[in-house]
Amino acid sequence: MADKENKKENEQERELTPEEKKAQLKQDIIDIVESTLITMFFIIMTFTYVLHPVNIVGQSMVPTLNKNFIATDSESTSDKILMNTIFFKLRYGDIIVIDNDVPHLIDENGEAYVPVGVKALEECIIKRVIATEGQTIDIRDSRVIVDGKVLDEPYINEGSTTYDLGAFEGQYPITIPEGYCFVMGDNRNRSTDSRAVSVGLISTEQIYGKAIVRYSPLKDFDILTDSWKGSAND
């Protein structure tokens, strides 16, 4: 038994011929290239269909996002986030990226409709989900009330006051129709959101994705999926 093992070890330790070395090098290169291509494929697929980088512009989500934003130097002072584009269900507190191509208001029957002659922002915006389909929302006395409960909102900017911007004036409380949600910015005094006629309710079809993390600036790295926590609503 020992002789057989020694013979096997000797065969393994013998010097490879030039042809064998060349073949082994070729195989190593093939293995490296194959591994690299597979890794690149998964990275490309992830950033194409799962995660998308987004550069945040403006101050509507201060202080959660862009607390150091300077309009004249937006490239270097803007926060950068990754958003998830698939497999998520809307819930209170989510920060979502929206294509505000058309506004949606509510008629006397509680159905969502696109108003004639009202111009949407027609730009990509980022806001926080305050109420989802089936929930009832009211805004009065600078308070936000969802399903009869006053929201405790520790995420809003200091000094912000929540007031209606005309979208549903005289209609509150309103019930959010199926397939829509009501959103607001954390910097309430400087946010054009569902309170405004130019935005109104957000259709699920207008949602690009959900903010997952802030990755830049690196010193402010943060998980955004629970940025609403600390509220009495968790």
Question: What portion of the residues fall into strands of 2 or more residues?
Answer: 25-35%
Radius of gyration computed on alpha carbons: 27 Å
CATH topology name of the largest domain: Umud Fragment, subunit A
**Number of helices, where a helix is a run of at least 4 consecutive DSSP H or I residues:** 3
Mean of pLDDT: 85
Q: Report low-confidence residues grouped into runs of 5 or more.
A: 230-234
Question: How many β strands by DSSP?
Answer: 14
Termini separation (Å)?
68 Å
Number of domains: 2
Order of helices and strands: HHEHEEEEEEEEEEEEE
Main CATH class of the largest domain? Mainly Beta
By CATH, the superfamily of the largest domain comes out as Umud Fragment, subunit A
Oligomeric status of the shown chains?
A: single chain
How does CATH name the architecture of the largest domain?
Answer: Ribbon
Mind describing the biggest β-sheet?
Answer: 8 strands, antiparallel
- Give the CA-based shape: elongated
Question: Which structural category do the helix and sheet elements fall into?
Answer: alpha+beta
Helix content: 10-25%
